[in-house]
Automatic annotation (TrEMBL):
It is a multi-pass membrane protein. This is Hydrogenase-4 component B. InterPro entries: ComplexI-like_HydComp (IPR052175), NADH_UbQ_OxRdtase (IPR003918), ND/Mrp_TM (IPR001750). One of its GO terms (cellular component) is plasma membrane. Its main location: membrane. GO terms for biological process: ATP synthesis coupled electron transport. One of its GO terms (molecular function) is oxidoreductase activity. The lineage of its organism: Bacteria, Pseudomonadati, Pseudomonadota, Alphaproteobacteria, Hyphomicrobiales. The gene is hyfB. Residues 129-413 form the NADH:quinone oxidoreductase/Mrp antiporter transmembrane domain. Keywords: Cell membrane, Membrane, Oxidoreductase, Transmembrane, Transmembrane helix. NCBIfam families: PRK06521.1. It is found in: Cell membrane; Membrane. The chain crosses the membrane at residues 6-26, 33-60, 80-100, 112-130, 164-185, 268-293, 300-322, 342-361, 382-402, 422-448, 469-493, 529-549, 651-669. It comes from the Bacteria.
Length: 670
């Protein structure tokens, strides 16, 4: 049976699970039934995608008798679609397994279950779409289903605001993509991707369409300043949905960018690569800076997603620049780094959101200032969350290090680029990427340390409990994927070879067959990495140190005053908080990046009350763009509101004036 047919049956299965959730949503057995069915369907989708990537199956296409009359819906499963189908369904399988237990905490499951399967179906259909109509329809299908999941807690004003902002950004992105398709198709009336590849829209129309695609897909992926919906929507949604929004749906936005720019448009200037590289570098640094400032754990993870999307776009921008200059091997390296990071981020970000959901379910809190000491109450969650933090901080031998290392290797090839703008810009972006990597380490030291170490800062943290077995199994599975992709990256790189060959015309040499399972992306004399050796070295050195300390240490019990580490009082108020941890970084970047407003209310001499400290950090996108834009729209709407109260004669005069203006426009056009 063709792989594309199986993929379509998987989409139908997800829709069927949504129907079951709508009909039986309030029944006790509906939650495990719907999520269990989605788990089985997602695993089937993973097998189909792996078969295409590793089996070398040719691209298969089909035309469905739905959609526009006489045209139908075109779908196609090629290596690029198969890779992103793997990312989508792997994340869907993990989220469904996690939700079998976590979903029992939902107050109103009927507001989640019908849209969960629908959301998964929409993401899979976007990946398979091969014409503009099917693509935009499934894109909106995905957006509306995810919006319903974001506002599932409809009694919360924060959820409703998050849904409103998300809907605005989604609609704006869709409008940009619609205009881009119109420019690419021109007057031909044929909107299939196969036709758009050969349509030849003209240099100006192609450049404008490329910019619209960057904006339209960047709004879904989370490029700054189009990221504003992420920090609002991700904390508002249930944790397993947050993992899908952050770890999976943003990757669908990246897929749309790759499909339309690399595949459909194809012919572009090297300066497009410069725009994408600079956007990615700025997004990476600003995203992690704002992540460090957060006290809400899920909001921190949402801003971290912005950072990682920036890293992916750095790789994609490099691939664009290298490909435009005919440097196939360098473009293949940059594309491999970007796609590898797509897979890595889907794994470790889903793991971290599952961990945040476990903390929320076990303690009822996601405010880091009210947590602490959870390593004693939730030890298994603490271990897997630590692995996720190490992965996202790009520490070897885990997977996040490999993809960022490959990105740096591609940056080191930038002197080969002939354009002076790129010669200066790419090293600067490399410095930004290094800064982002360092700040990411600080961010997740803060996240793990404040949440799991120290003493409990609230009764909720002191009485927290471990999550259920389904959630632990999902997190442990993703942790193993992070470790496997980091220690055996050659197999992942070889699986990406068909994708990079289709997109850049070249692919990296086979890596899995190299001695000791090393990876050599360029040449042995230049750079190489062996995650397996690093892993065994860390295990051996850690074991040797533990045994040596145990053997050498005295068995006598010695009593002495413990070093208080700056905590003379046995109170959680004396330990570092999240705000105090981030204070040095905040002081360095506050005047340039953040609209920081600190308020300190100290007690007067003799007044017996604690000091009060308030910190307000504002996103510059809201300060300088969206805030003024919203206020301008409101003022214009208030003025235009007068048009509702005119007399009939004034209404007729306005109609007549509009007709005259239209006639003049038509005459000038002719």
């Amino acid at each position: 049976m063709p792989e594309v047919a199986v993929a379509l049956w998987c989409i139908a299965g997800f829709l069927g699970a949504g129907v079951v959730g709508a009909v039986l949503g309030n029944r006790p057995f509906a939650t495990p039934l719907v999520y269990g069915a989605c788990l089985a369907i997602a695993l089937l989708g993973v097998l189909v995608a792996l078969g295409v990537l590793f089996g070398g199956a040719p691209a298969t296409a089909s035309v469905l008798p739905v959609g526009l009359p006489g045209i139908g819906a075109h779908v196609r499963l090629d290596p690029l679609a198969a890779f992103f189908m793997l990312v989508v369904d792997l994340g869907a399988a993990a989220a469904s397994l996690y939700a079998i237990g976590y979903g029992r905490h939902a107050a109103e499951p009927r507001r989640v279950l019908p849209f969960y399967g629908t959301f998964l179906a929409g993401m899979n259909l976007v990946v398979l779409a091969a014409d503009a109509f099917t693509f935009l329809l499934s894109w909106e299908f995905m957006s509306l289903a995810s919006w319903a999941l974001v506002v599932s807690d409809h009694r919360s004003s924060a959820s409703l605001r998050a849904g409103y902002v998300y809907l605005l950004m989604a609609g704006f992105g869709t409008l940009c993509l619609l205009l881009a398709f119109g420019l690419l198709a021109g007057t031909s009336g044929d909107f299939t991707f196969a036709h758009l590849r050969t349509a030849g829209a003209g240099e100006t129309a192609t450049a404008l369409a490329t910019m619209l695609v960057i904006v339209g897909t960047g709004s879904k992926a989370g490029l700054m300043p189009l990221h504003v919906w992420l920090p609002l929507a991700h904390p508002a949604a249930p944790s397993h949905v947050s993992a899908l929004l952050s770890g999976v749906m943003t990757k669908v936005g990246i897929y749309a960018f790759i499909r339309l720019v690399f595949d459909v448009i194809g012919d572009f200037s090297p300066w497009v690569g410069l725009v994408v590289v600079m956007s990615g570098g700025g997004t990476a640094v600003l995203g992690v800076l704002y992540a460090v400032m957060q006290r809400d754990l899920k909001r921190l993870l949402a801003y971290s997603t912005v950072e990682n999307v920036g890293i992916v776009f750095i790789g994609l921008g490099l691939a664009l620049a290298f490909r435009a200059n005919g440097q196939g091997p360098a473009a293949a390296l940059a594309m491999t780094a970007a796609l590898f990071h797509v897979l890595n981020h889907a794994a470790f970000k889903s793991l971290l959101f599952f961990g945040a959901g476990a903390v929320l379910a076990g303690s009822g809190e996601r405010d880091m200032e009210k947590l602490g000491g959870l390593v004693h109450r939730m030890p298994q969650t603490a271990v897997v969350f630590l692995l996720g933090c190490m992965s996202i901080a790009a520490l070897p031998p885990l997977n996040g290090f490999v993809s960022e290392w490959l990105t740096f290797q591609a940056i080191l090839l930038s002197p080969q680029l002939p354009q002076w703008g790129l010669k200066f810009a790419v090293p600067a972006v490399g410095a930004l990427l290094a800064l982002a990597a360092a700040l990411a380490g600080a961010c997740f030291v803060k996240a793990f340390g404040v949440v799991f170490l120290g003493r409990p800062r609230s009764p909720a943290a002191a009485t927290a409990h471990e999550i259920d077995a389904f959630g632990l199994t999902a997190m442990l599975t993703l942790a193993w994927i992070c470790l496997a992709a980091g220690t055996l990256p050659g197999f992942v790189i070889d699986a990406l070879a068909p994708v990079t060959r289709d997109l850049t015309g070249s692919a990296l040499p086979a890596q899995a067959s190299l001695p000791w399972l090393s990876i050599v992306p360029i040449a042995e004399s230049r750079s190489s990495y062996n995650g397996l050796v690093v892993f065994f070295f860390l295990v051996a050195s850690g074991s040797f140190t533990a045994i040596a300390v145990h053997r050498v240490a005295s068995r006598r019990t010695r009593r002495a005053p413990a070093w208080d580490c700056g905590y003379p009082l046995d109170s959680p108020l004396t330990q570092y908080s999240g705000a105090s941890f981030a204070m040095p970084i905040r002081r360095v970047f506050a005047t340039v990046t953040f609209g920081v407003h600190e308020t300190v209310d100290m007690p007067r001499p003799g007044e017996m009350r604690p000091a009060r400290f308030r910190l307000r950090v504002r996103d510059p996108a809201w300060r300088f763009f969206y805030g003024p834009l919203a206020r301008g729209v409101e003022r214009a709407a208030r003025r235009l509101n007068r048009l509702q109260f005119l007399t009939i004669r004034r209404y007729l005069a306005l109609v007549f004036a509009a007709l005259v203006v239209l006639m003049l426009v038509v005459a000038a056009w002719r």
